[in-house]
Amino acid sequence: MDCIFCKIAQGLVPSQKLYEDSSIVAFNDINPAAPVHILVVPREHIPSAAAIREGHYALMGHIWTKIPVLAKKHGLEQFRVVTNAGQHAGQTVEHLHFHILGGHKLNAALG
Ligand code: 5GP
Ligand code: ZN
Predict the structure, then answer these.
(1) Residue 45 known to be catalytic
(2) Which long-range contacts (CB under 8 A, 24 or more apart) does 17-23 make?
(3) CB 41 within 8 A of CB 96
(4) Is the distance from CB of 101 to CB of 36 less than 8 angstroms?
């Protein structure tokens, strides 16, 4: 499958990897929108948050317990987590990912 985040997860495309285990990878966003901008991605190709199902329950719990650990490790006590589902929401890569953003005061706009 021609998916950039699958390729990054498999190590076929280089990235600044910050964390990886058997089910997720985290790496720096190539075009950071904040001083710290980390992407957390499941290895499984899930197209977006709109495709999350009951069977992803443990994976989602795993991601959400790693998010504060990663944020803290990279100096963030205050941060935002965003996932965009669909083009109107701003999704440009069709592989589920969670943005961790922080390091300065973030714009309050949410929509
Ligand atoms: P979305 O717009 O889908 O919510 O977020 C996609 C994010 O992936 C963007 O912030 C974009 O900068 C990032 N991105 C796209 N291609 C690559 C890539 O090849 N490597 C890395 N590290 N980030 C990427
Ligand atoms: Zn993928």
Answers:
(1) no
(2) 18/70, 18/73, 18/74, 19/66, 19/70, 23/59, 23/62
(3) yes
(4) yes
The Cα 51–Cα 59 span in angstroms is: 13
With 0.90 as the threshold, say if the pTM is over it.
yes
**Two structure tokens written together for 94:** 């069709």
Q: Specify the residue with its C-alpha closest to ligand 1, atom 18.
A: 30
Residue pLDDT, tens place only, 41-93: 999 999 999 999 999 999 999 999 999 999 999 999 999 999 999 999 999 99
Contact 41, 24 (CB under 8 A): yes
Bridge-based pairing of strands 24-28 and 17-20 is antiparallel
Query: According to the model, what pLDDT value does residue 110 have?
Result: 77
How close is the Cα of 94 to the center of ligand 2, in Å?
A: 7
Distance 4 CA to ligand 2 centre (A): 6
Atom 24, ligand 1: which residue's CA is nearest? 30
The ligand minimizing its distance to the Cα of 45 is 2
